[in-house]
Amino acid sequence: MEITDQIGTPPPPTGSGQSGFADALGTGDTGTGEEFENFIRLLTAQVQNQDPLSPLDSTQFVEQLATFSSLEQQVRSNASLDTIASTIGDLHSLIASDWLGRSITVESSDVPFTGKNIDFEFDTTDSTDRAELIIRDTNNNIVYSESLDEDRAFHTWNGRTNDGGVVPADTLVRFTIDLFENNQFIGSVAPRIRTTVTDVATENGVVRLGTDMRMSTDISAVRMIDEQ
Hints:
By secondary structure, the protein is of the alpha+beta class. The protein has helices at residues 4-7, 15-24, 34-49, 58-99, and strands at 103-107, 110-113, 118-121, 130-136, 142-148, 155-157, 171-181, 184-189, 192-203, 206-211, 216-218, 222-224. Helix 3 packs antiparallel against helix 4. It is rod-shaped and about 100 Å long. The protein starts with a helix and ends with a strand.
């Protein structure tokens, strides 16, 4: 909306009265943008050049002031949004610098086997006295199973199957860990897969982490491994 292209650039206001009027409208060093300044010049020119015998209609003047107020609020909102966007960008950079390359665990039953060992751990209860790992393919067929030592910090599966073969790389498998107490089944848990953060992104306002295991997850769902 280039108003001055239609009516020409009006002369600057003169006299203390006009200066006070412009100041009251907040035309100081506010950085409000070209359209905002053009609106101020137009409104000031109307007041300055109105016919004393036929002054500007009060209703029109109030409407223009309301338009001015709306424009001012919009400009300020845009400035606030720019500030928020800048803050989010700074926060994203800060998060990325803190997480990239860090070792984490991601809770997930579905795990892509990339051809490399899958290290995992799992949560248990004080009453659990046996844990059984079951790995299935996408057709729900059991490809591997074993009893897990609960005292170990983490466990490893290298892709081997019960029949002595190896699961092909780039295969999606499903982990299930069944827990028992006195040989009675008490429930199943998903493993926490150990992996490394390779990417940080924001999706719909949520920070997500990409990993070298080709898994992505919300940052709130991971645990950072103490590397000390």
